[in-house]
Amino acid sequence: MHHSEPADDRSTFTELADQALSSGGLGEEAWVEVIRRMDRIYADLVHYQIELEHKNEELEEAQHFIDSVLTAMSDVLVVADINGRIQRINQAMLDMTGKRAEELLGRDIAILFTGESVNMAREFPQKVRDHAITDCEAEMLGADGEPVPIAINCSPRYDSNGVLSGMVITGRQLGELRRAYRELQDAHQRLKDAQRQLVQSEKMASLGRLVAGVAHELNNPISFVFGNMHALKRYENRLRRYLDTVHQGRPAAEVETLRRQLKIDRLLKDIGPLIDGSLEGAERVSTIVQNLRRFATPNHQGFSWFDLSRLVENAVTWVAKTTRTTPELHFDMPEELPIHGSEGHVHQILINLVQNAIDAMEELAQPRLDIHVVRQSKRVEVHIRDHGPGIPEEHLLHIFDPFFTTKEVGKGTGLGLYISYGLATEQCGGDLSARNHPEGGAEFVLSLPLEHGGTSA
Ligand SMILES: Nc1ncnc2c1ncn2[C@@H]1O[C@H](COP(=O)(O)OP(=O)(O)OP(=O)(O)O)[C@@H](O)[C@H]1O
Ligand SMILES: [Mg+2]
Prior knowledge:
Largest sheet: 5 strands, antiparallel
Distance between the termini: 98 Å
Number of domains: 4
Radius of gyration: 49 Å
Number of strands: 12
CATH class of the largest domain: Alpha Beta
Strand order of the largest sheet: 2-1-5-4-3
Bound molecules: adenosine-5'-triphosphate, magnesium ion
Order of helices and strands: HHEEHHHEEEHHHEHEEHEEHHEE
Helix content: 40-55%
């Protein structure tokens, strides 16, 4: 081996020197030999020196490489010994803490943390013996003294003999992620608010449309009741005159004449129907008020059992009456159809669909609506078909979009179907679809579960 040679050379060199000293001088040959060997030794030394320098360079380069990697890392990195004393720290960590390396090396890793996380960090040396700690959230102490939320990983570090010698902690700031997440949440909330507002404003729009009809509708039964009351008032006077005469004990002939004169018999026959008519009028008013109340009830309505057939009939006749040319209505539905769900929402959907159907038949001399309610095993379907022009193919894809309308400004907001679809799918657990009927006109199908939602009031 190369490295054993100099030792041999050296011993022979010593021997030679000894030899020279003891013999009192060296021959020229021996001197040459000594010099030759010294040369060789010197050459070897130089060689070692170069090799050493080379190794040093490599070491420095490796060191530099590691340093540059650690510095370039945007994640923070801390290397600690098994007792949690900081051994190494990267630039990102220094930047975050605003401290110099000298201030931190040798200190406990806990000083990097703040709040609750301090105790957590103290447990790292113990915990990391069993397993790596992954993705735990902690708060480190920022340069400004504020806590910096950070996602931390802590893994055990082993020495070249495979013995646990410490731990490596890496962390990534959560700030950005958090902020993005919060912004997303805010945006979502704003969207939800906007949507709620849309539902509300759509309600207001339908309400506005109905108010005109309502005034008209209320006017009818009320004038009816008024008329009847005036008639009854007149009858009261005549009855009083007649009864006074009877009670005064006037001759029978006179009473008889008065009875004919005042048309008492007819009057008595009229009183019944007049009272019945007034009662009916009052009931109509009461129904209208009940219908109106639905528009005023808040959005989050409870679930209850209600008769779908009655609701469909009410909603359809109600809207149909508020239009100029009342359409012919054809109902095909069970006498009674109890379903469990949100009555108010179903009512609103039906009103929207019927209003659209009637709008579509505006030009028709004899508008006609076919309403068909079918019960299936677990669902019910309400088909509302008009005899208007139908929906152009290219519009079919868009009619459920918000603000899609073909109506002139001020007439339609384009929200009716959008809101109705949302109510049908999200609030009622059902579905709403549109198609053109093979025999003309548009047909909307509202599908609802027979039983939906909890049993809240
Ligand atoms: N029965 C129908 N026949 C033909 N087209 C229809 C029918 N129903 C809806 N549409 C079309 O779908 C569009 C959107 O309807 P939607 O109810 O969403 O809004 P709108 O009726 O225009 O306005 P709003 O209901 O907000 O007052 C209508 O403008 C119309 O073009
Ligand atoms: Mg509409």
